[in-house]
Specification:
Elements lengths: L39 H17 L18 H19 L8 H47 L10 H8 L5 H9 L8 H9 L7
Helix pairs in contact: 4-5
Length: 204
């Protein structure tokens, strides 16, 4: 079956299921339906009523006003309605509204919005993956620190760990190992200074 183009003898009114997503707008005009729409005569009368409504409003059916027709008194809701009306007026007066390629422009704009949303979602997934990787890296680092004696099995910092925290250069672990292994014990002050100068961090 195809949608009717106008009520005539060859067209027949049918009852078809539809989802809420199929609704675009609601009108304040109501068509009263008979209790039983199974007889073809009842459906035919409904079709006649719809034709009459369309003829009565050639410029389009009046939309259901949530404030005037539904008597919604919430002030915040009224502000939202006014904002929507203002935006609709801006759309009508917009240069793009009169563009013959408006439908194509809308399609491109919608595609841009979808792509932007996909990019944001991808960034969130990437950040999540990086966080997981960082957690794995942190576990590996903590395992190394435990093996070297910088922390115990409960991840509590030991003496070597506290010494490493006090060293302010780029080779904290290496210097700490040298200290605890007695690398500086037999060196003179001049030799210690010369050796330590190799560990001075110089930013390029």
């Amino acid at each position: 079956p195809k949608p009717a183009t106008g009520h005539n003898n060859r067209e027949e009114m049918r009852i078809i299921p539809s989802s809420l997503n199929s609704l675009h707008k609601l009108s304040s005009v109501r068509v009263y339906l008979p209790k039983d729409l199974r007889p073809s005569d009842s459906r035919f009368m409904v079709g006649k009523s719809i034709d009459e409504v369309i003829k009565r409003f050639p410029d389009g059916l009046p939309l259901l006003d949530p404030v005037a027709d539904m008597n919604i008194k919430d002030e915040e809701f009224k502000k939202i309605v006014k904002k929507i009306e203002a935006l609709e007026k801006r759309l009508v007066t917009s240069v793009a509204h009169k563009n013959p390629n408006l439908e194509q422009l809308n399609s491109l704009c919608q595609k841009k919005i979808e792509l932007s949303s996909a990019v944001r979602e991808s960034k969130r997934e990437l950040k999540k993956a990086q966080t997981i990787m960082q957690m794995d890296e942190l576990k590996c680092r903590k395992r190394v620190l435990r093996r070297l004696g910088y922390a115990n099995s409960s991840d509590v910092i030991e003496l070597k760990g506290r010494v490493a925290c006090e060293i302010d250069c780029g080779e904290e672990l290496l210097l700490t190992e040298m200290i605890f292994n007695g690398a500086f014990n037999d060196l003179s002050v001049e030799q210690c200074v010369a050796l330590l100068s190799c560990f001075v961090f110089q930013e390029k």
